Fold this sequence. Notes:
The chain has helices at residues 14-25, 61-77, 94-110, 119-125, 148-159, 209-214, 279-292, 333-337, 353-368; strands spanning 5-10, 30-33, 49-50, 82-83, 87-91, 115-118, 135-139, 142-144, 163-165, 168-176, 179-187, 193-203, 222-233, 240-243, 252-256, 259-263, 301-312, 328-332, 342-347. It is an alpha+beta fold.
Amino acid sequence: xxxxxxxxxxxxxxxxxxxxxxxxxxxxxxxxxxxxxxxxxxxxxxxxxxxxxxxxxxxxxxxxxxxxxxxxxxxxxxxxxxxxxxxxxxxxxxxxxxxxxxxxxxxxxxxxxxxxxxxxxxxxxxxxxxxxxxxxxxxxxxxxxxxxxxxxxxxxxxxxxxxxxxxxxxxxxxxxxxxxxxxxxxxxxxxxxxxxxxxxxxxxxxxxxxxxxxxxxxxxxxxxxxxxxxxxxxxxxxxxxxxxxxxxxxxxxxxxxxxxxxxxxxxxxxxxxxxxxxxxxxxxxxxxxxxxxxxxxxxxxxxxxxxxxxxxxxxxxxxxxxxxxxxxxxxxxxxxxxxxxxxxxxxxxxxxxxxxxxxxxxxxxxxxxxxxxxxxxxxxxxxxxxxxx
Length: 389
Ligand SMILES: Cc1cc2nc3c(=O)[nH]c(=O)nc-3n(C[C@H](O)[C@H](O)[C@H](O)COP(=O)(O)OP(=O)(O)OC[C@H]3O[C@@H](n4cnc5c(N)ncnc54)[C@H](O)[C@@H]3O)c2cc1C
């Protein structure tokens, strides 16, 4: 080790949480800096759907396969963090019914288990479903707590020796010639600025990845792609509900404790700090959500918010947010931009946080000449509250 740390990770979302856990398990000395509270970026504000991969099984099979694999691993290493409630893909119209075979074939190709239900069986499971329901397909989706799950990774990493610093913003990268040697940060608690030196810097800033990499004159093809979510009072369904059709707006309802969260929409935002909350998207969530569960149309709103997906892709006028893949990629900026000492991980889903960390940690260990295998598939995580002990 040439610096205070082997690795400094920037970004305390689900991806950063899983990377810090992975790297300390491999014996590295690691610090993680997050400009706000932990998970205050996209990770703490998503739908809370542990994907089976069904949603991507037709158009984005790489991501679907990642989801089903990680779905099973996360249930094993984070017991108690999920409602084992499964999900239904529900056909309301003839067009939805016509999509069934394509959907079932995609799921089969991706290894996602399915069970076909008649309308009567689906309505027995979910009485608030649209009475026009024609059939449904059951898949192993689940509800997750998008704050507590990453906190379990942070808790375990902290107990294993990681140094985790919330409210610490990277405002510059330290560089010697074309090598990144650490970060220059400002503490939002003390107002002080200081340097943290490290042998390698990992950029895990999600939708902010491009902004961050520009500090090193490097580039990442990430497109901040926000969506709106609306939480309404009442638990209108117990299973995760999806429309049986191509992914579209307002076609998912996730039960979260005593609320139901309807989502989502999709647009491009040049700046992930300025998303706004378009009211027409909020209205669309009500309108589309009520096609699945008519009662939500009149349900009182608890909250509405937006968050930005960090999707992989170059800016293009002909490509929409729904066309971009949900898979992830780790960039070694030595290969991409001739900048040594900086690695970026972006794309992916909350569901694939562990896999993203494994890929990144393999790259990190390779670059640092560390021979250590990934153990995160087996190590059971501490409870979230252990972070505060
Ligand atoms: C509307 C919506 C719904 C979604 N629903 C689901 C779902 O149901 N299931 C699922 O699996 N996935 C879902 N996703 C995707 C998922 O939320 C994201 O893929 C995931 O949260 C990204 O996590 P991350 O750690 O990569 O990014 P983030 O959580 O955004 O973490 C990056 C962090 O970097 C920090 N940061 C930025 N700049 C700096 C800096 N200069 N210094 C220090 N820190 C910095 C930010 O504050 C942020 O906390 C959804 C996404 C959206 C937008």
